[in-house]
Amino acid sequence: MGEAAGSGLDALLRQRRREMIEWHLEARGIRDRRVLDAMDRVPRERFVPEHLARDAYSDSPLPIEHGQTISQPYIVALTAEAGRISPGDRVLDVGTGSGYAAAVYAAMGAEVWSIEYVAELAATGRRALDAAGFERVRVASGDGTLGLADAAPFDAILAAAAGPEIPAPWLDQLADGGRIVMPLERGLGWQQLIRLIRRGDEYDLDDLGAVRFVPLRGEHGLR
Ligand code: SAH
């Protein structure tokens, strides 16, 4: 590709990114400035297969490898907003996949640990994060339903795969005031995105609406 064609594509992608922020995020109720600014800075085209770069900013999930998907931008924004991420927060991202959501949380100033069940995806996610300048995100390969005890406690545990219930280790590894955002399987083909906030020994639970995610596997997942 010549230089002119390359910069033409860059300009197009920048414009589509702006449109994503305005039409798919702000217009649908995302208000957290930190989320909007972060998503304006993360080049989503670096996290999708190369031939899909032009579609990187459509508001849909896109296929990555191993039958998995990169979550829809609106869902990443909703999860980040519900997770109330502040600079310096310790965040566990469950389901690295493409690495995009981890990059968004890191762009919000969080310290991010990301864990992925499929080893090959952990490796491609790692490469994409490095190529996009997010070398400081830690990526681990393993069962995220066990959490990541070595790096606990977390201010937020954010999952991109739907499980039957909140994995018990996540509750143990959540800081006081910490948030868990995850989709729960509700049967009959639907899932509910929930947020749990820990307040001492009590937990507040919010319903964030119906969603569609890939299954959460592993010990406390759907297996
Ligand atoms: N956040 C990702 C979304 C990827 S889809 C992105 O922005 O692209 C969800 C991912 O969760 C898949 O890659 C899947 O392999 C992974 N996953 C499923 N069960 C898991 C588990 N128990 N631990 C870690 N990752 C898991």
Classify the helix fraction into a percent range. 25-40%
Give me the number of helical elements: 6
The CATH architecture term is 3-Layer(aba) Sandwich
Structural class: alpha/beta
Structure write-up:
With 223 residues, this protein is of the alpha/beta class. It has 6 helices and 11 strands. The protein has a single domain, classed as Rossmann fold (3-Layer(aba) Sandwich), CATH 3.40.50.150. It has helices at residues 3-26, 33-41, 73-82, 100-107, 119-131, 168-172, and strands spanning 62-63, 69-70, 90-94, 111-116, 138-141, 154-159, 161-162, 174-185, 191-199, 202-211, 214-215. Bound molecules: S-adenosyl-L-homocysteine (SAH). Residues 68-71, 94-95, 97-98, 100-101, 115-118, 121, 143-145, 160-161, 214, 216-218, 221 line the site of S-adenosyl-L-homocysteine.
Task: Please give a handful of descriptors for the protein shown.
223 residues; alpha/beta; Rossmann fold; 7-stranded mixed β-sheet; 6 helices; 31% helix; globular; binds S-adenosyl-L-homocysteine
